[in-house]
Design brief:
The chain has about 450 residues and is an alpha+beta fold. The protein has 2 domains: about 270 residues, FAD/NAD(P)-binding domain, CATH 3.50.50; about 160 residues, Elongation Factor Tu (Ef-tu), domain 3 (Beta Barrel), CATH 2.40.30. Helix content is about 30%, strand content about 15%. The strands form 4 sheets. Strands 6-2-1-7-17-16 form a 6-stranded mixed beta sheet, with helices on one face. Helix 2 packs parallel to helix 11, helix 2 runs parallel beside helix 13 and helix 3 crosses helix 4. The longest helix has 22 residues. The protein is globular. Belongs to the MnmG family. TrmFO subfamily. This is Methylenetetrahydrofolate--tRNA-(uracil-5-)-methyltransferase TrmFO. NAD-binding protein involved in the addition of a carboxymethylaminomethyl (cmnm) group at the wobble position (U34) of certain tRNAs, forming tRNA-cmnm(5)s(2)U34. One of its GO terms (molecular function) is flavin adenine dinucleotide binding. Its cofactor is FAD.
Length: about 450
């Protein structure tokens, strides 16, 4: 007799956890409060909705840790990565997604599964009994967040996450802009032209920085602090760190040649990435912002090519809550003080769609295995998922714990007894080792006859 697994939250982590557990034969109820209870960032009631960027980042599984995580999820039959593949957009070496069809596909596949049901009521208290996964993400409701904090005896940590604006393609001046992926990356001509580029000379860049620094910004409420995650800094915060910071970040001009003026090297370049399959929407890459909406339109229209830009969505900022996982969770992602509850996704302190879905994949398999009476071991440290879950459940120092993207710095070092390897060779060694370890871990989970 199997028990039901209850999952709070239908984002990347919750959707993936439900899919994995149901495919192991465990009945699942997804408790998703949307659309009854709305958040400021979500637009729909769909499961797996993308609320910030539409990119799953690098898809290179040989020399990039994120791409390796994609590979591990694909081999484990992940619903998030397979749905992303189904609705992929040209993005050079990255995996960008047509966001609405993607979330609609995730929702349909989950609700069509005979073992998955959806409950749209808000859960406001930490559950006492039953098998649960909390995958409420960065926008955990205040009631549930307070319940978690009250039980753990520690305040939830929090940082602020910012959303980049989206521009209507028809409003972009292509006499100024051009299509090119940095360093012409990509296997096809479409991929090599996946990004739209807006060039700036030094005078334009300096004026843009001045306007950015002077613009009206969102004010914080009393008692809040701006503990931003470095991987998702608002552009004005980057500019405050130094006038040249953006030129060495999202506005770096390297690897690009302006066909309108091939002999003039841009001083800075703003890149936009296609946001839907129709090519009618583009998001401004790396331009998360906490500027007020009126200021955004004025400042962003200073970008050459965007003088008459029309915005489908302006940027925003929201509180992003996560728990101190190294203190609170064991290596099975269980709450130490109440082991019938697991946590998954961004609330555990991982950052990014891919990392969130990966922790959902593990939590779903681990919870289902426990219900079925067969232990699903934590993946080996040599794998991307194993390295990431190890970091958040003990590898990181609890006192300074901050959200983390997957990266090779979390992996056990490669033996370089033949001398220091170059980076490309070293990363390939990491991914080869990880793939072998991951496949062995997957094979060990197959039920024996």
């Amino acid at each position: 007799m199997t028990d039901t697994l209850h999952i709070i939250g239908g984002g990347m982590a919750g959707a993936e956890a439900a899919w994995q557990a149901a495919n192991m034969g465990v009945p699942v109820v997804i408790h998703e409060m949307r659309p009854k209870v709305k958040t400021f960032a979500h637009r729909t009631g769909n499961l797996g909705e993308m609320v910030c960027s539409n990119s799953f980042r690098s898809d290179d599984d040989e020399s990039n840790a994120v791409g390796l995580l994609h590979w591990e999820m694909r081999t484990a039959g992940g619903i998030i990565i397979s749905s992303a593949d189904q609705h992929a957009l040209p993005a050079g070496s990255a995996l960008a997604v047509d966001r609405d069809p993607f979330s609609e596909t995730v929702t349909k596949r989950l609700l069509d599964h005979p073992l998955i049901t959806l409950d749209s009521n808000e859960i406001t208290e930490l559950p006492m009994d039953g098998n649960w996964i909390i995958a409420t993400g960065p926008l955990t409701s205040s009631a549930l967040g307070q319940s978690i904090a009250a039980h753990t005896g520690a305040d939830a940590l929090a940082f602020f996450d910012a959303i980049a604006p989206i521009v209507y393609a028809e409003s972009i001046n292509m006499d100024t802009c051009w299509m090119q992926s940095r360093y012409d990356k990509g296997d096809t001509d479409e991929e090599r032209k996946a990004y739209l580029n807006c060039p700036m000379d030094k005078q334009q860049y300096e004026a843009f920085i001045d306007a950015l620094l002077a613009a009206d910004k969102t004010e914080f409420h009393e008692g809040e602090t701006a503990g931003y995650f470095d991987g998702c800094l608002p552009i004005e915060v980057m500019a405050e760190r130094g006038r040249e910071t953006l030129r060495f970040g999202p506005m770096k001009p390297v690897g690009l040649t302006n066909p309108h003026r091939p002999d003039d090297k841009p001083y800075a370049v703003v890149q936009l990435r296609r946001d839907n399959a129709l090519g009618t929407l583009y998001n401004i890459v790396g331009f998360q912002t906490k500027m007020k909406h009126g200021a955004q339109t004025e400042v962003f229209r200073m970008i050459p090519g965007l003088e008459n830009a029309s915005f489908a969505r302006l940027g925003g900022i929201h509180r992003n809550t996560f728990i101190n996982s190294p203190t609170l969770l064991d290596h099975q992602l269980r709450l130490k003080s109440r082991p019938n509850i697991r946590f998954a996704g961004q609330i555990t302190g991982v950052e990014g769609y891919v990392e969130s879905a990966a922790m959902g994949l593990l939590a779903g398999r681990m919870a289902a295995g426990e219900i079925l009476g067969r232990l699903v071991e934590t993946p080996p440290l040599d794998t991307a998922m194993g390295a990431l879950v190890n970091h958040i459940t003990g590898g990181a120092a609890a006192k300074t714990f901050q959200p983390m993207n997957v990266n090779f710095g979390l992996f056990q070092p490669i033996d370089a007894k033949h001398g220091r390897k170059n980076r490309k060779t070293r990363y390939k060694a990491y991914t080869d080792r990880a793939k072998a370890a991951w496949q062995e871990w997957l094979d060990a989970q197959k039920p024996t006859a």
